[in-house]
Structures are given as structure tokens and as C-alpha cells.
Design a protein that fits this description.
Blueprint (H helix, E strand, L loop, with lengths): L2 H14 L4 E5 L2 H12 L3 E9 L2 E8 L1 E2 L5 E2 L4 E3 L8 E2 L13 E6 L2 E4 H6 L4 E7 L1
Antiparallel strand pairs: 1-3, 2-3, 4-5, 6-10, 7-10, 8-9, 8-10
């Protein structure tokens, strides 16, 4: 099982049903991905909740439109999987939807967007494409 793919699937499914919040098992990598999604405006908020010595990640989804029935997050895809890792150098960092989306990378200096990685001149593992 891939915990990152499970998180992305739970976010996709919750957005299809127009849920406001979801709760999922937490990890440092999942929290960093949520941090970037919040910074880029794809989700409203996230927080790590400690309960009974277990950490869970509470994600508040974001919608737009008059009735709040339009998804802000059109698509979220896992790129690098446990069976097939995808690593890129700084020159190979992908442009998602001609710059309308973002690529989330795991680099030696932490998890960041493709634009941030290009600015710092470093490559890494492409985790997720979001638009």
C-alpha cells in the first residue's frame, strides 16, 4: 500500500461528495504535501491532531462559486510510486498544464513545488501533479 496515494484518493473522493473536512492518518510527508496545497490555494486548511497517542491529519477542503459547489482542485495525481520512482534533475522539472498546475517534489532540502526547486537549482523525486 502507498500511503501518499491513499491520501490523494481520499481527498479526491471527499471532493466528489463535496465534504468540507476529511481526517486521515498523519505523517511528516503528508503534512508537507498539505502545507504546499494550502500555500498554493488548493485547500483551505490542514492541521495535525494528536489523540490517544496517534496523530491524524485534518484537511479542510476548498470550493468556489456562488453555492460553493465548484471544485478548486481539478485533479491530483501521484507520479512517483513505490514500484516506479520518478527522479528529475533541475532541467527536467515538469510544467504541469503549461504552468496552470504545480508539481510537488521531494528534494534534499525538503518538500517543495517545482518552481521553488528550479529557483534553488535542485532536482528530486516528483511526488504529485496538481491542477
Amino acid at each position: 500500500m502507498d500511503p501518499i496515494s491513499n491520501m490523494l484518493t481520499q481527498i479526491r473522493n471527499a471532493q466528489e461528495r463535496f465534504h468540507r473536512e476529511i481526517k486521515l492518518p498523519s505523517s511528516k510527508l503528508k503534512a508537507e504535501i498539505c502545507r504546499i496545497l494550502k500555500e498554493e490555494g488548493f485547500i483551505s486548511d490542514y492541521r495535525v491532531v494528536e489523540q490517544d497517542n496517534r496523530a491524524s491529519l485534518q484537511v479542510t477542503l476548498k470550493y468556489k462559486g456562488k453555492r460553493g459547489r465548484e471544485k478548486v482542485l481539478s485533479s491530483i495525481e501521484r507520479v512517483s510510486r513505490p514500484g516506479q520512482r520518478v527522479y528529475v534533475s533541475v532541467g527536467e522539472i515538469p510544467r504541469v498544464r503549461n504552468g496552470l498546475g504545480i508539481a510537488i517534489l521531494s528534494t534534499p532540502q525538503g518538500v517543495m513545488t517545482g518552481k521553488q526547486a528550479k529557483a534553488k537549482r535542485m532536482g528530486g523525486e516528483v511526488l504529485v501533479h496538481v491542477w
